[in-house]
Structure formats: C-alpha cells, structure tokens
C-alpha cells in the first residue's frame, strides 16, 4: 500500500495544540475561584493510587503531599506570553478548557463570578488577536469541590441544572468569541476511574459500576441539555462530545479472546458515543446492564432529551491501543492512560510504559467514522517524555517529533480512507502538570517550562526542537513531516 502524500489534509484543517485549565493555569485561589477536584489531588505516583482506589476524602493535606495543580505553569498570569508562542508556531486553533469553579466557585451560586468571566474574555481576545480559533471544553476534570462534597458529584441528579446553567452562562457570555465547544472531557474514562470525570470516589468495588453508569446517565442528560442551549444561543456554533478512544486488540486469534476484545471495545469506546451521536443507548447495554446488575434511574423525558439533542462532531483523545485476553492470568502487562493491558510485542513504549501505536489511530478514526458518519476532531495526542536541556540550551526532542510525525501521518491515511477529520491539536502543546501522575517531569510540550516535580524552577519558557518542526508542519498544511 502506498504512503499518502500528506498534502491531502483539507484546506482549513484546524492545526493547533491542547491544554486544560486545571493543569496549567495555577492561581488556584485567585480571581474569586473556588476549589475544584484537581486542587485536592496530590502530585506524584500517589495520585494514580488515589484515582484507582475507593473512598478518597477530597481533602488537602500539605503535610503529606504536594499539590502541583495549585501553581500549574502560572498560565493565569502568563497567558499572553504563551499565546504569542502558540501564534509563532502558526496555530489555527487552540483547544482549552474553562475552570467551572472560576465561573461558579461552589457550582451552585445564583450569579457567576465576574472576575472569572472577565479572565476568559481576555484569553479569547488574545487568541483572536492572532487569528487563533478557540475550542473550549466546558468541563475538564475539575468539578467544583463543593458539588462533590455537597451532592456526591455526578451521583446526584441535582447537579444537572447546575451544569446547564454554567454552560448557558458561557454560551451567552462568549457568543461571537467561541464557535467550537465540547461538553465533558474524556467522558468514558469514568468506566475505569469515575473520580476524574464524575467527581466521586466509589464507595466500594461492588457498587462501582452501578454508581458510574448512573453518574454517566446524569452527564448524558446534562450534555444533551447543554447541546440544546448551545444550538439555540449560538446557532452558528458546533458542539461535540469528547471521548478517550483506544482500539482493543485480541491477544491472539482465539475466538473467545476476539469476542472479549469486542465486548471491551463496546463498553469503553461506544456507549458514550452512541448516546451523544445516535441519541440512544446501544442495544448491547441491555445485556451488559443485566449481567452487571446495573439498574439506571431514568426519569420521564430523559431519553427524549438525549434523542432530540445530539452533537455535531466527535472529539477524541488518542494515545495508545489496548491488547486484551479473556483470562488474563499472570501475563506481561503494560501501563496506559487510566487503564492497563497485555504487552503488545509489536509495539514500543514511552518512558511511562504507554505503548506507541500510530496505526491504531488510523484504525480508531476508521472505526469511529464507519459507526457514526460525523466529523472527527483529534483533540489530544502526544508523547509524555523526559526532556534534557543540552549545554547550549537546546532541547532536542527527536523522539517527540518521531511520535507526532507518525500519528499525523496516520491521520492523513485515514483522510485518504474517506474519514472526515476536522483538525488536530497536539496534547500538552506547552509543558504542564500531568493529569494522571501530577508530575512536571512527564513533559508533552513543544515549549519547555522550567518547573520541576519538587516545585522549583523559574517558569521560563524555552522552545524545543519540536517547536520549529511543528511550525513547519502547520505552515505546509501537513505536507512536510520530516525533521
């Protein structure tokens, strides 16, 4: 099979980068902002333990832990400098999120916090100054802490109107400044770890699936109502759902393992997509819910709301594939983005054990487009790695260039396959705090930030070799991918 000439990226393709408010803004107690989920998650390897375990108390304990999200990379005060660097790279778009607790500090106030709204006005104005189109995630792993403590997060239906009010506030305020929206970040990640997406730590493993899918149902209703509001308030806008996508491979050609991979893929990759795009729960959930004793409290009108207000596009994060067998036993396992799987002997892995599979991105885009026939937007993809500053001050991150080049090439191949792809925003276009581990040393950016795991550093921004490479990729609309 011939290799695609990547000049076939369509005119107007949205090249850019992606970040999240809780991972780079800092200023966690400034501007009237309230505490949120990310503010109570400690840094370091302990974070992953908390994400996986049950019964987290959502308290800050500075005697035991550090909290890197409190400072982030000080983007709150340095956004102009950072956006100027994005513009220098030639960004057409910038995927970012708004911190819910900057707008409604406790989540349930009658009136929004004007200081928070004004901050994002300034950010959007700065982006538009350079001709950069913002793509905004409404909720990205940072639910207001008060809603977690008072209502149990998305366990409670009472949170639905609070989220819808928050979303409507954004649509009304930023009409004319933001044309692309997404409701919840990586909504399906809750299937593995509900704490990040749903804002609660399950009471126990036995109740985890029941609590998780009830919480997801509440989010589905809220997302549909927000979609309705977006279409009404900003008719020219587009609003999408956002999922964490990972194709599931069978560990061998045993039909039982192939069936297991299919079932894993259905539950993780497709339930959330089907509800958002098709407007209904897929048929396979009937058996899945029955076998796992999941009984959803679906109120009158919920399914009508979901059916009537579907999204315009699917946004996805893609970092790796998964390889699974039905009976795992004592096999060789690898790490991943909130999940683990069997080690794939055909793939290499990152410094953090995440397997590198660019072909898997082409597979993912084909699978999604075959199923949904709506535009796709790759809004997260990147390599977390240790970076070294050379004696001359340069940062030669060829490994990052190699990773991104092959994944961008895979998107080009998918476009040639007939898939409609709107754009590509590389994750962590500037170094920021890792969501999964709370580390700064796990660097993704084209821009190095002098901040370290122990909290030290000058916060100086420095361009990596990948900065100039990506600048050329954008300038040539993907026609030149080599270093």
TrEMBL record:
Q: Name one GO biological process term.
A: carbohydrate catabolic process
Q: Which residues form the active site?
A: 380
Query: Which Pfam families does its entry note?
Result: Glyco_hydro_1
**Superkingdom in the source lineage:** Bacteria
Keyword Acetylation listed? The answer is no
Molecular-function annotations in GO: beta-glucosidase activity
Q: What does UniProt give as GO cellular component?
A: cytosol
Q: Which UniProt keywords apply?
A: Glycosidase, Hydrolase
Q: Is Hydrolase among this UniProt entry's keywords?
A: yes
What family does the database annotate?
Belongs to the glycosyl hydrolase 1 family.
* Protein name in UniProt: 6-phospho-beta-glucosidase
Native source organism of the sequence: Halalkalibacter hemicellulosilyticusJCM 9152
């Amino acid at each position: 099979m011939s290799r695609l000439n990547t000049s076939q990226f369509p005119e107007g393709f949205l090249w850019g980068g992606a970040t999240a408010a809780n991972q780079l803004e800092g200023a966690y107690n400034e501007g009237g902002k309230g505490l949120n989920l990310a503010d109570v998650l400690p840094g370091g390897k302990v974070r992953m333990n908390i994400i996986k375990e049950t019964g987290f108390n959502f308290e800050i304990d500075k005697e035991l832990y550090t909290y890197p999200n409190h400072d982030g990379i000080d983007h709150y005060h340095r956004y102009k400098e950072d956006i100027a660097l994005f513009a220098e790279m030639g960004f057409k778009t910038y995927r970012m999120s708004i911190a819910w607790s900057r707008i409604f500090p406790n989540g349930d106030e009658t009136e929004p916090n004007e200081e928070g709204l004004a901050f994002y006005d300034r950010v959007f104005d700065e982006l538009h100054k350079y001709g950069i189109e913002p793509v905004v995630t409404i909720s990205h792993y940072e639910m207001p802490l008060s809603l977690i403590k008072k209502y149990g997060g998305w366990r409670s239906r009472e949170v639905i109107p609070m989220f819808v009010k928050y979303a409507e506030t954004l649509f009304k305020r930023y009409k004319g400044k933001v044309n692309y929206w997404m409701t919840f970040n990586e909504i399906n990640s809750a299937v593995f770890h509900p704490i990040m997406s749903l804002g609660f730590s399950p009471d126990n493993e036995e109740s985890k699936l029941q609590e998780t899918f009830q919480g997801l149902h509440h989010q589905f209703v809220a997302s549909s109502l927000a979609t309705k509001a977006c279409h009404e308030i900003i008719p020219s806008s587009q609003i999408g759902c956002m999922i964490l996508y990972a194709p599931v491979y069978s560990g061998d050609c045993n039909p039982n393992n192939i069936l297991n991979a299919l079932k894993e893929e259905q539950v993780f990759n497709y339930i959330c997509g089907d509800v958002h795009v098709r407007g209904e729960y897929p048929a396979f959930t009937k058996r899945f819910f029955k076998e796992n004793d999941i009984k959803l409290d679906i109120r009158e009108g919920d399914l009508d709301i979901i059916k009537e207000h579907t999204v315009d596009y699917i946004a996805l994060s893609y970092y790796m594939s998964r390889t699974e067998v039905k009976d795992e036993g004592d096999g060789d396992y690898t790490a991943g983005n909130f999940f683990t799987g069997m080690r794939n002997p055909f793939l290499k892995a990152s410094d953090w054990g995440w397997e590198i599979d660019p072909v898997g991105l082409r597979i993912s885009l084909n699978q999604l487009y075959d199923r949904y026939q709506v535009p796709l937007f790759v809004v997260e993809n990147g390599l977390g790695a240790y970076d070294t500053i050379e004696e001359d001050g340069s940062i030669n991150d060829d490994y990052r260039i190699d990773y991104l080049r092959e994944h961008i090439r895979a998107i080009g191949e998918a476009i040639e396959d007939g898939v409609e792809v709107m754009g590509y925003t590389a994750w962590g276009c500037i170094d920021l705090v890792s969501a999964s581990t709370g580390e700064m040393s796990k660097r993704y950016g084209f821009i190095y930030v002098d901040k370290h795991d122990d909290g030290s550093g000058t916060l100086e921004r420095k361009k990596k070799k990948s900065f100039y490479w990506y600048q050329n990729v954008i300038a040539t609309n993907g026609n030149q991918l080599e270093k």
